[in-house]
Amino acid sequence: MKQLIASLITVAIAGAAHAEINFSKSVPSEQRKLLTRDMFFLANQPYPSDSKLAQMMEIPSTDGLTILNWIDNRMVRIVGEDFELEKNIAIVNQSFFPEPSETPSIPTVVNTPGGSSGGGKVQTVMSNLGGAVYISGKMSHVMFSLKVDDNKINITSPRLGVFKVGEGLFNTQLTKSPADSKMSTYFRLATLVHEARHSDGRGRSAGFLHAICPTGHRFAGYAGCDASSNGPYTIEGQFLKVAIQNCKDCQPGELEPEKTV
């Protein structure tokens, strides 16, 4: 399970109607406020249609509200950094899933967040626990549940994303700007787009697992690269491109966090 989760996390180097947001009690109040503000901001962005992003997301338009609803359809809960998977996971049914015809290849992670790369510390920004638990269950024919606060979530689909906040999501060293800045807002929204992508896929592409970055890459040895041309980092990057192009009061280079995109 640890290898699987490691291949689903977002890593980084440190040096208007809207969708309903379901936060766990484990998410600190200030982080809830910032993420809620981020999503209100996204819901009110009239981005023009971007054919590449629309094709990857399989949505009719790429205005902010449509993108927010796309995220919401892949996320059931946001949990805090202190949420412990091992203490909140349980087997519900030991013979739930049939034998899958194809399953994703889980990369052997050489390095895990906490080490260093490119002169800085590699941090977990966010992870999609629901996607990892679903894939693990499907490969072993077991239905797992996750207990979040007083709720039990039976993970029967990859669309039941449980997004766990990582140490990098609110780290202003990554964005080089205050937590309530536009830079930080786009950084967090791009991360939500990234994690929502991990709730997609089927067969060999289930979860759009990361690949190990090759020698010479800034994240060499880490599961910080895409295994496909429409994976989480690619779709995150295209979202940021659309956001930057339509940010009327942004300065050149303002929306370029040190993430792999």
State the domain count.
Answer: 1
The largest sheet is: 5 strands, mixed
Taking pLDDT < 50 over at least 5 consecutive residues as the criterion, the unreliable ranges are 11-18, 257-261
Amino- and carboxy-terminal Cα gap: 25 Å
What would you say this structure looks like, in words?
The protein has nine helices and ten strands. With 261 residues, it is α+β, with helices and mostly antiparallel strands. The chain has one domain (2-245). Strands 1, 2, 4, 5 and 8 form a five-stranded mixed β-sheet that branches. A three-stranded antiparallel β-sheet has the order 3-6-7. A two-stranded antiparallel ribbon has the order 9-10. Helix 2 (29-43) crosses helix 4 and helix 3 runs antiparallel to helix 9. The longest helix has 16 residues, at 182-197.
Identify the notable features of this structure and list them briefly.
single chain; about 260 residues; alpha+beta; five-stranded mixed beta sheet; 10 strands; about 35% helix; about 15% strand
Write a brief structural summary.
This protein has nine helices and ten strands. The protein has 261 residues and is of the alpha+beta class.
Topology:
Layout: H1 2-6, E1 10-14, H2 29-43, H3 51-57, H4 64-72, E2 77-79, H5 85-88, E3 89-93, E4 116-117, E5 120-128, H6 129-140, E6 143-148, E7 151-154, E8 162-165, H7 172-175, H8 182-197, E9 210-211, E10 225-226, H9 232-245
Parallel strand pairs: 2-8
Antiparallel strand pairs: 1-5, 3-6, 4-5, 5-8, 6-7, 9-10
Helix pairs in contact: 2-4, 2-8, 3-9, 4-8, 8-9
